[in-house]
Prior knowledge:
Elements: H1 2-12, H2 31-34, H3 39-61, H4 69-84, H5 91-121, H6 135-152, H7 160-171, H8 175-178, H9 184-195
Helix pairs in contact: 3-4, 3-7, 5-6
Amino acid sequence: MALWSRILWRISKLDLLLTPTHPDVAGGLAFLGKGLVPFGLILFALSAVVAGGIANRILYSGDQLRDFQSSYVALFVIALIVFAGPVLVFVPDLMALKLRGLMEYGALGSQYTQAFHQRWIWRSETAGEPLLGSADIQSLADLGNSFEIIRKMRVLPIAITDFIAMVLPGLLPVLPLLTTVMPLGEILKSLMKLIV
């Protein structure tokens, strides 16, 4: 983890050519989220050890699952912070990139839409020029799409799918513990409702 953190920190200090309109909606850094997926195996192993200890206490000492809920959740959250935390080093750069992109493309959008309005609505420059087939409308749509990408840009370079791929293996060892609280059929029905 120290090596991973150091690598990410050193990468963040490079003069990166990040663009606010990058299609990955993270300035070009969304690939970093893929680096979190393998940590799901470590999270699975940690969770399995803890879940095994809890199961042992429930089956042989008569303890209840609710006695361990808060400590298990706290341990899980700490593990997530340890594994995903190093990527937070890019948040200030991405926040600045998003703000700069909104300002730059906002100014460009103002200039373009004013010129578009003047040309096509007030008809100051288009005497006899047909609107149909004009590249101006496509350029206006492209500018709108670019601005929308910037508006949706994530300041954390982790896609939700990458986060789920890391977290899901860590939750699997908990499922057998849930059978001590509710029947397996109800657990499966609840899971199916979440999936469907």
